[in-house]
């Protein structure tokens, strides 16, 4: 059993409870996501790594090499189970030579700060890694059976994109990776050019040849459906905007504020507007602290300007919204009132990418600690019409 990502320890413990063993293997999770499973996994022969995130570290490299070594010993009598969860791109790292771990960190950090979409970043990761894009599963080609359990943190729920798909076959596309790296002027060009040139020369030999089963265990849509059921049982109407909302956090926040305003006048009964997906933030100041969900809420707050009858919550389901250290936050009409009393400007906080500081002032932070799950963002807007 090889697990990677934020839910890997919790999922590995669940597998141990429900599937017959014995097992050997490992789970590599971001620091803080051990989920209290250290002794359970250790006693069952599963080694637990606490690795770097969002950038890989030495533990990420050690976990990847341990996984490769273990999988290469698999025989036709063995069954291999991969546990793929969000965050696994960082917790398993094996840069292809001549790239080093530091080079890989520099490249990923540069792409993030350049505003590259996560899909592009993960495509690059797949091409510069000895474990991503199906290469991890290829190490266990002698195994009798291989399967992957997935908890999806990607819009569209493509298993090949979760954790950059270590166990999912992906046809190499060096030219696509080169275009992304060139467009964003990524550092260490000589080295990544050498890696991509090697993949291009390998041609079809680089393509994984697996058709192993993949089981999707949980998605953002599942979370929204659960939330809708709870809301409806409490007597609320529900408007589900879906789990595939992407784009700029500020623009989406303003659009959702406008929608909430319209619902105030067109609805008679209270309703809950649900949405998921993955929003992005325009990084103007790299030193700023915050995240997409706090940015979304700040934009809503600025647009609503204390409108009565509207409250909103937005959070990352892994318990960490960007660099904020918190899951997300909440706003109400009183949030705007407090801003006015203290003479603060939402625009100034947004311009400085300091939404953490804004919500600290508002006492509007949602603090959960690390959650061993990641099905992307969760947003809920409560609209209570004045005549409702």
Give a written overview of the molecule.
There is one protein chain. With 388 residues, this protein is α/β, with parallel strands linked by helices. The chain has 2 domains: 2-218, Rossmann fold (3-Layer(aba) Sandwich); 220-383, MOFRL domain (glycerate kinase, domain 1, 3-Layer(aba) Sandwich), CATH 3.40.1480.10. The protein is built from 15 helices and 13 strands. Helix 1 links the parallel strand 1 and strand 2 (25-30). Helix 6 packs across helix 8 (174-183), helix 8 runs antiparallel to helix 9 (189-202) and helix 11 packs across helix 12 (292-304). The longest helix is centred in the middle third of the chain and has 18 residues, at 249-266. Residues 204-208 have low confidence and may be disordered.
Please specify the SSE layout and strand pairing:
Layout lengths: L1 E3 L3 H11 L6 E6 L7 H6 L2 E6 L6 H14 L7 E7 L2 H4 L9 H13 L4 H10 L7 H4 L6 E7 L22 H10 L5 H14 L11 E5 L1 H14 L3 E4 L4 E4 H18 L4 E10 L11 H13 L5 E7 L11 E4 L1 H10 L3 H6 L3 H8 L2 E2 L10 E7 L5
Parallel strand pairs: 1-2, 1-4, 2-3, 4-5, 5-6, 7-9, 8-9
Antiparallel strand pairs: 9-13, 10-11, 10-13, 11-12
Helix pairs in contact: 6-8, 8-9, 11-12
Full CATH superfamily name of the largest domain:
Glycerate kinase, MOFRL-like N-terminal domain
CATH class of the largest domain: Alpha Beta
Give the rounded overall mean pLDDT. 94
Number of strands: 13
Shape: globular
Distance between the termini: 53 Å
DSSP strand content: 15-25%
CATH topology of the largest domain: Rossmann fold
How large is the count of helical segments? 15
Percent in helix: 25-40%
Please state the structural category.
alpha/beta
Count up the domains. 2
Secondary-structure element sequence?
EHEHEHEHHHHEHHEHEEHEHEEHHHEE
Summarize the main sheet. 7 strands, mixed
